[in-house]
Amino acid sequence: MKLTKLLAGAAVALGLAAGGALAQDTTKVGFVYVGPVGDGGWTYEHDQARLAVEKEFGDKVETVYVENVAEGPDAERVITQMALQGADLIFTTSFGYMDPTINVAKKFPNVKFEHATGYKRAENVSTYSARFYEGRAVQGTIAGRMTESNIVGYIGSYPIPEVIRGINSAYIHAKKVNPDVQFKIVWAFTWFDPAKEADAAKVLIEQGADVILQHTDSTAPQAAAQAAGNVITFGQASDMAEYAPKPRVSSIIDNWAPYYIARTKAVMDGTWSSVDTWDGIGPGMVGIGEISDAVPAEVKAEALALKDAMASGEYHPFTGPLKKQDGSDFLAEGETADDGTLAGMNFYVEGIEGSIPE
Amino acid sequence: MDLSAINPVLLIASLMVAATPLLLAAIGELVVEKSGVLNLGVEGMMIVGAIAGFAAAVETGSPLLGFVAAAIAGALLSLLFVIMTQVALANQVASGLALTLFGLGLSALMGQKYVGVKPPQMGRIDIPVLSDLPVFGRVLFGHDVVLYFGIALTAAVWAVLKYSRVGLILRAVGENHDAAHALGYKVVKIRTLAILFGGACAGLGGAYISLIRVPQWTEGMTAGIGWIALALVVFASWKPWRALLGAYLFGGVTVVQLNLQAAGVAIPVEYLAMSPYLITILVLVILSADKSSAPASLGRSFHASR
User: Fold this and answer.
1) Do residues A34 and A91 make contact, with C-beta atoms less than 8 angstroms apart?
2) Closest-CA residue of chain A to B118
3) Neighbours of A136 (CB within 10 A)
4) Residues A101 and A145 grouped into a single domain
5) A217 and A297 part of one domain
6) Do A222 and A100 belong to one domain?
7) Which residues of A touch B (CB under 8 A)?
């Protein structure tokens, strides 16, 4: 009796497996997330883009995702697992997945990989990122105009070029509208740890900051600013509109959906090739969230004008004359930074105090 | 470097907040260990308390009810430890570790729909005159109720252990459970109550993190505070007031580290992150000379027939 049941079960399982194998005209797309999809920031936006892919292609696509994947060896295991399960295209959405993605890609030459914010590519590995520093320029302008204590707090995640670029861009533009502005920078050494982020925000506020910029993914600094009262913040990676109109006065919104849809389409059509995409406000990969009424109208107009100038390409946030922190020359009058310099940026511009941790 | 940017008053105020979850968990564990039981499941009970308190506060809209729920949840989880170690007489170290791992997994499961949710806010106490006092007003009288509860609990535990009959019995059970049994005290019952108390305290500590200190829910958000609380009990050589001092010291390290960073002092984060554990090791070495430290029956199972 038991044996017959077992055999019947095995037969059904085999049938299902065969059925699954036959229905191979769906494209399977995998996503690896560094935080939970409900973080309200970075991972949330990637997941919104995943849902947009599902909506666009309907039955023709199947998506899978794994959240809270630690950067490092664990990521390699997760990506491998996804490739083994038959994913055709895998998006790995954090800087620390760079080497794991390259390693796994070597073992699965027929699977396409897309790594966010990294710089290592291969035959079947593309990289993509957004020019967040354009958004930081807008934030810096608002921060410089709005601060009364002239102290702007900045919560950094890891000292990597992407984050340093953001700090520099925000500082340059804050300084431009407010020569007395000073930046206080705290490194949290995490992308997502609400307890640490909240502590960092509180410390910055205690030391006099009345504007908090964050390059970490949770809404905890927003909550800390709200509790403190007269402090403004900016949504990071996502709109974080639940904290508007104050403390959150604007935001940088990552809009990955068009890119994810285009790349999925390319895999379906067989036209996928390894590329390096780095888009900003112009193509719409970086969005600026609604500037709330807590910001005076003239500051809002100034910020939006800057945004439009960057979108049309007539203004580059890193335009000379600029010096490095140590006083050496960075950019001459009118010169703009090229992408190579930006991608590897490992120094502060002149005026920022403190040193970048090793 | 600009150390003048660090405001000592605000530093102490935020240090007290950072220390409270540690203090609550450590005081609970101190009572447990005084009764002769070593419960390594503090981290697990804290995180379950954190999510249970968070969920209850969100659903009912009342942070206070959240804290009540957290204490109950912590105690319920510790009941599992009671069954393992007091009824089934399993090894306490292994059971405690299992409790931590179980708690971490359970909390992640319970918390799935609470990620990114905003909890109701807990108001600060505002005592009309005292809170406005210069310097001390902000440090001493500007906090939430739970912080004061933690300090009051420390005083209460100290008084009970030192002066009351209940405290004497608890200590007797912890020092020599056979003698206490011979005197007619119900060792298992007393230890069970102590473990439940410890669980409730750990739950409260966890909820303090998710409802006041952050306030938000994320998986694994206690981030090792339960382990520091365990180290703290040893550091305090099982004395409540020293636990308070230790909690402020340990809690202070995190706050001071961020303050130094913001003030532009470049001390590698790793040094400060490991300093609490280094201090514990140091204290353990010093304590080894002091014979009057750990309860003599700590970690030993008791059965009336043996």
Assistant:
1) no
2) A223
3) 28
4) no
5) yes
6) no
7) 36-40, 44, 68, 153, 184-187, 189, 192-196, 198-200, 202-204, 206-208, 218-220, 223, 227, 242, 353-355, 357-358
Encoded tokens for B248: 């402020």
* Chain B residue with Cα closest to A354: B264
In whole angstroms, give the CA distance from residue B300 to residue B298: 6
Q: Among A196, A223, A354, whose Cβ lies nearest the Cβ of B215? A: A223
| Record: contact A206-B259, CB cut-off 8 A | yes
Q: B186-206: buried (b, 16+ CB within 10 Å) or exposed (e) per residue?
A: ebbebbbbbbbbbbbbbbbbb
Q: Is B7–A206 a contact, with Cβ atoms under 8 angstroms apart? A: yes
The pLDDT tens digits of the residues spanning A222-279 come to 988 988 888 999 999 888 888 888 899 999 999 999 999 999 999 999 999 999 999 9
pLDDT at B291 over 80: no
Residues A245 and A272 placed together within one structural domain of the fold: no
Q: How far is A206 from chain B (nearest CA, A)?
A: 6
Asked whether residue A222 falls in the same domain as residue A99, the answer is: no
Looking up residue A67, the CATH number of its domain turns out to be: 3.40.50.2300
Nearest to A79 by CA among A47, A102, A110, A101: A101
pLDDT tens for each residue of B23-69: 999 999 999 999 999 999 999 999 999 999 999 999 999 999 999 99
Q: Is A341 helix (H, G, I), strand (E, B) or coil?
A: helix
- Contact list in A for residue B7 (CB cut-off 8 A) is 206-207
- Tell me the C-alpha distance between B84 and B92, whole Å: 8
Task: Provide the number of CB pairs (under 8 Å) joining chain A to chain B.
Answer: 93
| pLDDT above 90: percentage of residues in chain A | 73
Number of folded domains that form chain A = 2
pLDDT of A20? 43
How far apart CA A288 and CA A272 sit, in angstroms, is 30
**Would the CB atoms of B115 and A185 count as touching at under 8 Å?**
no
The rounded percent of chain B whose pLDDT value lies above 70 is 89
Q: Is A42 a member of any domain?
A: yes
| Cβ separation B269–A207 shorter than 8 A | no
Q: Are residues A57 and A169 in the same domain?
A: no
For residue B258, list chain A residues with Cβ-Cβ distance below 8 A.
186, 199-200, 203
User: B187 to chain A nearest CA, in Å?
Assistant: 39
Asked if the Cβ–Cβ distance from B269 to A189 is below 8 Å, we say yes
pLDDT digits (tens, 9 = 90+) for B200-252: 999 999 999 999 888 888 888 888 889 989 988 988 889 999 999 989 988 88
The angle formed by the CA atoms of residues B72, B76 and B78, to the nearest 5 degrees, is: 120
Please state, rounded to an integer, the average pLDDT across all residues of chain A.
Answer: 90
B255 vs A185, A203, A218: nearest CB: A203
Peptide bond preceding A321: is omega within 30 degrees of 0, i.e. cis? yes
Domain B3-287 grouped into CATH 1.25.40: no
Domain span including residue A150: 132-253+286-343
Domain boundaries, chain B: 3-287
Quick check: is A291 in a domain? yes
Distance from CA of A305 to the nearest CA of B (A): 32
